[in-house]
Amino acid sequence: MANEKGVTDRVVLVLIDPEEEREAEANAREMRLLIDSAGGLLADEMRVRRGRPDPRYLIGKGQAEELFLSVQDSQADLVVLSEDLTPTQQRNLEEITGVRVVDRTQLILDIFAQRARTSEGKLQVELAQLQYLLPRLTGKGTELSRIGGGSAGGIATRGPGETKLEMDRRRVRRRIATLKRELQEVVQRRSIQKRGRRQLMIPTGALVGYTSAGKSTLLNLLAGSDVEAHPRLFATLDPTTRRVTLAQGESVILSDTVGFLRNLPHHLIAAFRATLEEVTEADFLIHVVDASHEFFEEQRKAVAEVLREIGAHNKPTITVFNKSDAVSNQYELRRLVAETPDSCYMSALTGEGKEHLLRLISQVLGRVRKEVAALIPYSRGDLLALCHKSGRVLQVDYMPNGVLVHVEVTPELKPKLAQFEQKPTSENQVDLKTGC
Ligand SMILES: Nc1nc2c(ncn2[C@@H]2O[C@H](COP(=O)(O)OP(=O)(O)OP(=O)(O)O)[C@@H](O)[C@H]2O)c(=O)[nH]1
Ligand SMILES: [Mg+2]
Question: How much is the pTM?
Fold first, then answer.
C-alpha cells in the first residue's frame, strides 16, 4: 500500500517482546497492522527479548548491528520499533542503521495525520506531533530535517508541514501555543453546538471500542448513514454524530469515536481529550467488541483501561459482541452474552441482532439520567435552589419570563418541577450532521 505521495516505505520492524507469549503475539500483530495502516511494506522483522538493553539503543549493541545488516539485506528505508525511544536512542539507531527510525507513538501519530479530516482533528494531530517532537529538537541540523521531509512522503515524514524545515525550538513552542489557542476556540464552538443538542433533550450514547471492531459499520446500520468504515486501523478519527430511532419512536443520539488501541500513547489521550469528551459526556456507552478476533479479550481490556483513564468507566455500558457472522464457535458467543450484563451479539455487517440491540438500548435508557428543562419564574428562587441542591444543573439561561434550567432530576425533584417543565419544540432541533 502506497501512501498519499505514492511512496511505499520498506520497513524493518523491531519487536521488543514482552515476557508473556500471548502478549508478545498480540503486540506483533498489532504492530504489523499499524505499519500496513500507515502505508508501509513489511520487508523484515526482528524479534528481541526484553532483557537488559543498552541504554544507547534501547536494544543491545549487538542487536543494533544485526539491525543494520537486516536493513541492508532487505533494502529497507525505515526502521520501526514497537516501543518508544528516547531522542538519543533514536539518533543513535539512525546513525548505526543509516535510515530513518520511528517508534510506536510516531507511527500512530503518522496514521492520525493521514486520517484527520476536520479542522479540530488536524489541529490536535499537529499539536501532538509537535509536542512529541519538541524534546527531539536539539538545535542540530539533522534533527530539524526530520519534520521537514513532507514533500518526499513516507511514514512519519508527514510532519506538520514543509515550511517548518528551519523551525527551531522557540518557533515550535510558539506554534504549540497558537495551536492550543485555536483548539480552545474550536472547543468553545463545539460546546455551543452541544448546548443546541442538549435543548433536544435526547439521550446521547457513544460508540467505543478497539479500532476495527465495527463501530462505524454499526452506526451506519443503526442510522442508515454513510460513515466511513474500513478494514484499516483508525478509519475514524473525528467524532461523528447521528440520530437513531428506537422501537417506540424514541430517539437517541449516537456518536462514533476514534478507535482505541492497547497502550494508547499518552500524548494521544491528552491531544484527543476534546474528541473523547463525546465519550465522557455521553449518557451511556456502547462498547463494540470484535468477537471474531483472536485476541478480543485483550482488546476488551485495553478499551476498559482507556475508559478508566478518561474517567468514563462507570457509565452504563452496553456490550455488543459484533461480527457474529464471522465467529466459528456460536456456543461460546452465547456464553459470553449470558455472562455479560447488558450485552448482545450481532453482526453489523448482515444486520443480525439489530432489533435486539435496539431493545437493549431502550432498556438501558430507562435507567440512565432523566433530564428535564423547566422555565422557573423569577419568583420561585426556592425551586432553582432546590435544583442546585438535589439535582445536577446542566445549563441555565436567563429569559425574560424566568430562568430556563436544564437539570438532571432525582425522583423527588421531578414532580416539583412538573408544572414548569418545557417540552422540546421543533424550533430547537439541531442539524445533527453539523451539530449547529
Ligand atoms: N464480518 C464482519 N465484518 C464486519 C462487521 N462489522 C464490521 N466489519 C468490518 O470490519 C472492518 C472495520 O469496520 P469499521 O466499522 O470501520 O470499524 P471501526 O470500529 O469503526 O474502526 P476504526 O474507525 O478504525 O476504529 C470493516 O472492514 C467492516 O466491514 C461484522 O459484523 N461482520
Ligand atoms: Mg470507525
Answer: 0.75
pLDDT in tens, 68-83: 999 999 999 999 999 9
Of residues 83, 85, 107, 104, the one with CA closest to residue 95 = 85
CA 239 to mean position of chain CA atoms: 9
The answer, yes or no, to whether any atom of ligand 1 lies below 6 A from the CB of 321, is no
Residue 282 beta carbon below 6 angstroms from any ligand 1 atom: no
What are the pLDDT digits (tens) for 337-395? 999 999 999 999 999 999 999 999 988 887 775 778 899 999 999 999 988 887 778 88
Atom of ligand 1 nearest to the CA of 258: 25
* Burial annotation 232-256 (CB, 10 A radius, 16+ → b, else e): bbbbbbbbbbbbbeeeeeeebbbbb
Pick the CATH number of 371-428 from 3.30.70, 2.40.30, 3.30.450, 1.10.510: 3.30.70
Does the domain at residues 9-109 carry the CATH identifier 3.20.20.60? no
- At 173, which amino acid appears? R
* For ligand 1, atom 12: residue with the closest CA: 212
CATH of 202-367, one of 3.30.1490.20, 3.10.310.40, 3.40.50.300, 3.40.50.2300: 3.40.50.300
Distance (angstroms) between ligand 1 centre and the Cα of 110 equals 21
